[in-house]
Amino acid sequence: MLLVLAGVLTAAMVLQYGYGEIPCMLCLLQRVAMFGICFGLMHHFQQDGRARGVGLALVSAVFLLIVSARQTLIDICPRPGHGYVGSAVLGLHMPVWSVLVALGVITALSAQVAIVGGGRQDVSPSPPLASTVRWTGMYVSTLCAINLVSAVLQCGFGPCKTSGYSLL
User: Fold this and answer.
1) Which of 31, 84, 101, 102 could be a cystine partner for 64, CB 3.0 to 4.6 Å?
2) What is the SS3 assignment for 90?
């Protein structure tokens, strides 16, 4: 799940930097929620399966679902004179992908808690899984830092604009 989210966040950054699609405020909030899910999953693996990381990931996934559903509904019924922002990936726009990601994360983590339970597990992750989580965690942390710098350059200290970078 962490690798999939890292891939989605990478795709968002490629669309931003490679194709010049500057994210809107709701897009930036969706990225924050995805980073929250990633950090919850990383915490879950680092703490030998304690439920706090799963809780953080679930709260972030619910936040992602709310924000992405709102943006999807806004895009279905746009205001007059406002077109759809962003390009489609495999026929779906990023807010719709975010709805699917949020539903997948909520379903998977809820099933895990229902089947395995929420308490501490006696089994620690295998060394290859721990290594994958560590490297993916460093990659996601780097993406988060790049996104933070990009958001500050885009928004400055005021409202975000989708037409250019405010501080450049």
Assistant:
1) 102
2) coil
